[in-house]
Predict the structure of DUF2069 domain-containing protein.
Amino acid sequence: MSASLAIWRGRVQWGAILGLIALIALCLAWELWWAPLRAGGSVLMLKAVPLLLPLPGLLKGRRYTYQWCSMFILLWFIEGVMRGWSDSGISQWLALGEIALSVWIFVMVVLYARWTRPSLEQATP
């Protein structure tokens, strides 16, 4: 593997990890403080809990985790699109942030999975 590819792979890995942590923080802050559906917080804050599932695999650089995370993260993209369409005010802006973060994570995990495929590592000296 070339040195530049290894550097970019590391950056993409940390981009995915930091994006996932930011999405977790956004989901919690959104439903607890910034724009909860009910005063005092909403049960929708639990949507952040499943986001913890891929975190250990992403931290360890497991290619399989990056692969399934690319489909898993689309659930938050869909939720962001739906709430961006139906909500108004700050909640709509937070939904746009959720869309942006989920797209960011999707791109990062797909790039990581692509750059760590076995055929690529065998092809580069």
